[in-house]
Amino acid sequence: MESSLGRSASLARAVLSGPMSNSRLLSAALVLSLAGGGAVLTSGCREKGPAERAGEKIDRKLDKVEDALDPKGPAEKAGRKIDRAVDR
Asked: What is the pTM of this model?
């Protein structure tokens, strides 16, 4: 009877020597890893912690200082508001 490791090794040899080329195998691995990474990133916590809220508050203050030194047009201000609304 073949062990689990032996079956895995023979399966790997069959896949690598079969009709699937190395580039297709790497492409499949890349797609799977990106899908898995995306699932992990999107399943993160929804609530903002105190450090993130403090960082956003600092960002808003710096935006106000920047606007005082170099005023933004109405389109840029609207874009900033949209960005903030989407980030929530």
From this structure: 0.40
Alpha-carbon distances of 6 from 9, 11, 50, 60, 65, rounded to whole Å? 5, 9, 51, 59, 65
Structural Rg of the chain based on CA atoms: 25
- Complete DSSP assignment for 44-77: S--S--HHHHHHHHHHHHHHHHHHHHSPPPHHHH
- pLDDT (tens digit, 0 to 9) for every residue of the chain, 88 residues total? 456 666 666 666 665 665 556 777 778 788 888 887 776 666 666 778 899 889 989 998 998 888 888 888 889 889 988 988 887 6
